[in-house]
Amino acid sequence: MAITLHKGDLPDGLSFGASVAVDTETMGLNPHRDPLCLVQLSAGDGDAHLVQLDRDTYDAPNLRRLMGNPAVEKIFHFARFDVAQMQRYLNVVTTPVYCTKIASKLVRTYTDRHGLKDLARETVGVDMSKAQQSSDWGAATLTEAQLAYAASDVLYLHAIKAVLDEMLVRENRTELAKACFAFLPVRAALDLAGWPEEDIFSH
Predict the structure, then answer these.
(1) How far apart (Å, rounded) are the C-alpha atoms in residues 79 and 198?
(2) CA-CA distance, 147 to 134, in Å (whole number)?
(3) Coil, strand or helix at 75
């Protein structure tokens, strides 16, 4: 496994193929208040690329191009938050999107444990550490522990997706999942526009 840290943007010419696992690290969970600091990516090959963003400019054209590329599927866990961060700080609508948390909720209806740690343990037998989840992602220099934690959040998403896809087919919920994924950029836009909790479909 290799973890590569890039400052500011992805290097020119770096390709992730037809799908890329993506995650973000921020200073908190409020996209209006807490800036985007780090974006993690993996092609599912066991390697991770981490982009430590310049928070003064957020000038990352290669990363922005990848997130908006309609030919590359972006795999997230809890895409709603990450896609909103991309809209807010990188000014890009991330599409197409796959969310392992939504897929899990559609097929793992026998549990209410849909966090990445529980999902990874059940689907691919990986016990992930969450020790660095609440740490200072805005620091100029990230620790080795932070880098390893950030990488782990994307290294297993392709394998988790493969298991969830089989379950979606088995339960005849693939098309429902696709419809949910397609709506995620709109859900993120609603969050950013001031409707984070309100159900606009309710009476």
Answers:
(1) 18
(2) 13
(3) strand
Torsion angle, CA of 104/105/109/112, rounded to 10 degrees? 100
CB 137 within 8 A of CB 27: yes
* Separation in Å, CA 15 to CA 35, 62, 84, 133, 159: 26, 10, 23, 28, 19
3-state secondary structure of 46: coil
Q: Is 121 helix (H, G, I), strand (E, B) or coil?
A: helix
User: Among 116-125, 130-139, 186-195, which stretch is predicted with the lowest mean pLDDT?
Assistant: 130-139
CATH topology of domain 3-193: Nucleotidyltransferase; domain 5 (3.30.420)
Q: What pLDDT shows up at residue 1?
A: 82
Q: What angle is formed at CA 182 by the lines to CA 179 and CA 184, rounded to 5 degrees?
A: 115
Q: pTM of whole model > 0.85?
A: yes
Strand partners, 19: 73
d(C-alpha 15, C-alpha 18), whole Å: 9
State the chain's mean pLDDT as an integer. 96
Show me where the domains of the chain are located: 3-193
What tokens were used for 25? 């690290």
Q: What is the pLDDT of residue 134?
A: 74
Q: Tell me: the pLDDT tens digits for 82-114?
A: 999 999 999 999 999 999 999 999 999 999 999
* pLDDT over 80 at 131, yes or no: no
- Strands 19-26 and 73-76 turn out to be parallel
